[in-house]
């Protein structure tokens, strides 16, 4: 059992999946708020992302258009750019940090490219995210070490 989950073994609980259309409380507004508040509390300097949009080659035009009104699926909330309920992540270190956290962070289990991408895609949007995830997963030293021990 992964170390982060071992504390849960002392509790009795049942987890039930509730589809999005049945879970009225988890609408797009609450999801955006959760994303922003979670990242704000976990990532030092998170607010700097707002200053990256105007110069980001993927988002600068959309960000400018959304400063006045929504543009298709894109809109601004508290100065952050969203595509639907997903936070747009400019190219840079934060994008890589998010991928590393979802793939190999405290509660992650090195799920692989597809599952990591699916988990990220629920909350974040950026161009070439699948390619970025694949690149990081292939470079993971923990996984490379585990594979080499399996082959021995």
Please characterize this protein's 3D structure.
The protein has helices at residues 28-42, 49-52, 60-66, 93-104, 113-123, 129-138, 141-151; strands at residues 74-77, 80-83, 86-88, 124-125. By secondary structure, it is α+β, with helices and mostly antiparallel strands. Strands 1-2-3-4 form a 4-stranded mixed β-sheet, sandwiched between helices. Strand 2 and strand 3 (86-88) form a beta hairpin. The chain is globular, with a radius of gyration of 18 Å.
Rounded average pLDDT: 78
CA distance, first residue to last residue: 23 Å
- Indicate the proportion of strand residues: 5-15%
Radius of gyration: 18 Å
Side by side, the strands of the main sheet go 1-2-3-4
Summarize the helix and strand pattern as letters.
HHHEEEHHEHH
Our count of domains comes out at 2
Q: What's the count of strands?
A: 4
The helicity comes to 40-55%
**Total number of helices:** 7
Structural class of the helices, strands and pairings? alpha+beta
Largest sheet geometry: 4 strands, mixed
In short:
The chain is 46% helix and 9% strand. It has helices at 28-42, 49-52, 60-66, 93-104, 113-123, 129-138, 141-151; strands at 74-77, 80-83, 86-88, 124-125.
List the helices and strands and how they pair.
Layout: H1 28-42, H2 49-52, H3 60-66, E1 74-77, E2 80-83, E3 86-88, H4 93-104, H5 113-123, E4 124-125, H6 129-138, H7 141-151
Parallel strand pairs: 3-4
Antiparallel strand pairs: 1-2, 2-3
